[in-house]
Amino acid sequence: QQKVQQSPESLIVPEGGMASLNCTSSDRNVDYFWWYRQHSGKSPKMLMSIFSNGEKEEGRFTVHLNKASLHTSLHIRDSQPSDSALYLCAAASNMGYKLTFGTGTSLLVDP
Amino acid sequence: DAGVTQTPRHEVAEKGQTIILKCEPVSGHNDLFWYRQTKIQGLELLSYFRSKSLMEDGGAFKDRFKAEMLNSSFSTLKIQPTEPKDSAVYLCASSSDRANTEVFFGKGTRLTVV
Question: A75: how many CB neighbours lie within 10 A of its CB?
């Protein structure tokens, strides 16, 4: 079964709005989370990583992590049409090597 | 600075054919992954190599899928025989051998089996 769950499956936000994406792992061994972004027809590229409890901000993007609940969220403020893409959450344990991906959230920013 | 290179970019095969997909990882990376991506299942791990040794072969994909890594700079994924349900994008990725390191993806091979 899928160990990384993402919600919502799809999201439409107006240009300039805030997009909030969620991700939870059911594997208690998970220590590391990443967010990857995949534009249509392109390969996934890492957007942000978070390994410690709390918040990390890079420009318009903010990631939160709660290790107790194994939940991470990605927030995009002032969303732009170029942010329209599939956002993939990935998790790995400190014993592991491979990323387990969620099925993604498809974000559409409506101009 | 070359990233992960995959060939071909597109492949059309008839049901029952054998196809071979190729991947060159980022130079110096010890970990190499093959993923299959579909809209319904998302990204599924097919195979994982560390320093050319097969660490995981993706369980359910064992019977018709075989990945090999003959040297540190080249890997192949063979699908034999192909079935229409194999139609998907096949992504190769590589990283250094640390658990908290970024994984870099190739541009993928879009396989269509008719």
Answer: 16
Of A2, A90, A92, the CB nearest to B99: A92
Q: Residues of B numbered 38-77 whose beta carbons fall under 8 angstroms of chain A's beta carbons: which are they?
A: 40-43, 45, 48, 50, 55-56
Distance of CA B8 to the CA centre of its chain: 12
Give tens-digit pLDDT for B3-26: 999 999 999 999 999 999 999 999
Confidence grade of residue A2 (pLDDT, cut at 50, 70, 90): low
B1: confidence class by pLDDT, cuts 50, 70, 90: low
The residue to which tokens 């709660």 are assigned:
A66
**Tokens (6 digits) for A108:** 């559409």
CA-based nearest residue to A98, from B98, B71, B21? B98
What residues of chain B lie within 8 A of the CB of A41, using their CB?
none
- pLDDT for res B85: 94
pLDDT of residue B40: 87
pLDDT digits (tens, 9 = 90+) for B92-114: 999 987 767 889 999 999 999 99
**Residue of chain B whose Cα is closest to the Cα of A47:** B102
For B81-109, give the DSSP string.
S--GGG-EEEEEEEE-S-TTS--EE---E
Cα(B99)–Cα(B2) distance, integer angstroms: 22
3-state SS, one letter per residue, for A8-71: CCEEEEECCCCEEEEEEECCCCEEEEEEEEECCCCCCEEEEEECCCEEEEECCEEEEEECCCCE
